[in-house]
Write a structure and sequence with these properties.
It contains no helices and eleven strands. By secondary structure, the protein is mainly β.
Length: 131
């Protein structure tokens, strides 16, 4: 059974930074693509960043977070991260880590990051950006 557990959320002032972590258990990260989603109150869940399952780990970012967020993975530690800088109030949301185990090593996650593409989900970690 694959389990994802997010951590690192919290309250931060505008312009601040947070690093979210996603601990994966139950399988290795090889060939698995990961996506960070967020869901703000009253809004639909949206993908903000993904990292492909290939060795190169090609990423994709939602345009509003491009240049501010960085997704990364550590296969040896079974961890996935989302570094969030220059945070804005509109980044406030619950952030979820999700795994796509069927994508394979040749698939680019930028073409495959819908909620229906994901096989496993964490329970989320809340991020609040406010002064």
């Amino acid at each position: 059974q694959v389990q994802l557990v997010e951590s690192g959320g919290g309250l931060v002032q505008p312009g601040g930074s947070l690093k979210l972590s996603c601990a994966v258990s139950g399988r290795t990260l090889d060939n698995v693509a990961f996506t960070w989603f967020r869901e703000a109150p009253g809004k639909e869940r949206e993908a903000v960043a993904c990292i492909s399952g290939s060795v190169s780990g090609t990423p994709w970012y939602l345009l509003p977070v491009l240049g501010r967020f960085t997704i990364s993975r550590d296969n040896a530690e079974n961890m996935v991260y989302l570094q969030m800088n220059s945070l804005k109030p509109e980044d406030t949301a619950v952030y979820y880590c999700a795994a796509d185990v069927t994508a394979g090593p040749k698939s680019y996650c930028g073409n495959r990051h819908g909620t229906h593409d994901m096989d496993y989900w964490g329970k989320g970690t809340p991020v609040t950006v406010s002064s």
